[in-house]
Amino acid sequence: MNQRRAPLFEALKHHVIQNCAGFHFPGHGGGAGLPRAFPDGREFLRFDLTELPGLDDLHAPAGPIARAQELAAALYGADRTFFLVNGSTAGVQALLLAATAPGEKVLVPRNAHRAVIGGLVLSGADPVYVTPPYDSDWGFCRPPRPADLRAALRAHPGVRTVLLTHPDYYGQAAVDAETAAVLKESGAVFLADEAHGAHLPFHAAMPARALGLGAAAAAQSLHKLGGALTQASLLHLKGTGLSPARVSRALALLQTSSPSYLLMASLDLARRQLAVSGERLFGRAVELAGRLRRGLAALSGVEVFDAGPGRADPTKVPVSTRGLGLSGYRAAAWLRERHAVQVEAAGLEHLLFVVGLGTRAPDVARALSAFRALVREHPASALRSPLSGHRPPVSDLRLPTSDFRPPFWPVPPAQKVLTPRESWFSPARAVPLREASGLVAAETVGLCPPGIPIVFPGEKLTPEVLEYTLEIRAGGAAFQAAEPGLETILAHDG
Ligand SMILES: Cc1ncc(COP(=O)(O)O)c(C=O)c1O
User: Fold this and answer.
1) d(Cα 364, Cα 339) in Å, to the nearest integer?
2) Phi and psi for 12 in degrees, rounded to 5?
3) Right CATH for 420-492 from 3.10.350.10, 3.40.50.970, 3.20.20.70, 3.90.100.10
4) Where are the domains of the chain?
5) Which of 68, 331, 338, 450 has the largest count of CB atoms under 10 Å?
6) Ligand 1 mean position to 113 CA, how many Å?
7) Which of 89, 93, 225 to mutate for ligand 1's pocket (most ligand atoms within 8 Å of CB)?
8) What is the mean pLDDT of residues 217-224?
9) Ligand 1 probe mutation, 83, 96, 113, most atoms within 8 A of CB
């Protein structure tokens, strides 16, 4: 144990020195997209303060924090806005705590973010999972179908709350006019996990925002695309669906008693930047994203995802590398190691580029030239889509020698046995993954990004889910799980 080392700081420094063209969160891109007023260098540290006279209190705001929150509410058309210093995670969890009671049914999509599971454990609500269609060409889910939502709402008349992710990690709008009508007709309170949507109001090409589609609340990560520091987020309330006092009390349970003034100031400045220059800045981001999209789509063997008219956030650019005979994992590693281009995420089928306020034209030029080189080294192969039926062998997913396609839908319709909260408080044991079939999961298991669990706590561990998990484990995937190597999984006896 060498106490002169600082492993995390050293790793950060090593990354920063590489000077990557970054297409990932936070969207401010190393500061280029932060508001100019944001203090620089050592001056920044002088703003790391606490509840001193005149600086207000996040948990009982009556001064500048209250006024900053009111300005944010006015910008987003909310009745009330809260600053979050623990990401949208805290917002989503506070919403579930405030809106639901133990045992009460709440409708959530089966591809919800892990923050939702935390909220369900805290509140004790009983999830009704709606399984969205899985797009096996792209390796991610498409938005839940309005007909499936309607059917679930009819089958479970006790559902009074619906939580949807809008837009999702890949930039797809989950809620369109039809879905909004289904939700309205049901009378349920619609809560939006809008972690990826803080920028939607600032460009005409963006999908409609949740508050405009009938949501009673929306949690937004301003650190993702809104120009704030990591963790800085907003929680908006609108209408009478939720009690602001109860949400405020839930946030007091969940958020630190020492909120960072740097994060809160970054929210205030990001809001000002969005209000004053949001349209111009997102105009540039959308233009750059379009340049990237067109440049990539022109390459042989490369496909760029299109969620459809009105459904796509143009700042998200999912790209398929399968036509090159490559997994996204391998392509991402190649781009980083050879050309210092860092994408937001890689999956088996895709890469995800995010174009944020900090993205500049030379970043896009570097990404395109790196991708051209990738295509030269991996010319379009016989694997070019349609690929159905092709099953290359499993190998190392991080740097595989050959590639792998998931043999089936990795998120089969859920077989819920316990609610996440019942699971949390029930006895569990670590079971070798291969022996867990038929048992009930006692933990959340997934890959991050995207933070969408493969296994939800309280669900039956089916042979299909275990087979899929074993395959990607064999490929070297790094899981977020109680035991990250996933030799064992926490389970309840069936
Ligand atoms: C869909 C979704 N919801 C919620 C969250 C949590 O947001 P935060 O990281 O701001 O806590 C994320 C984070 O990636 C997300 O992708």
Assistant:
1) 12
2) -60, -45
3) 3.90.100.10
4) 41-274, 420-492
5) 331
6) 7
7) 89
8) 98
9) 113
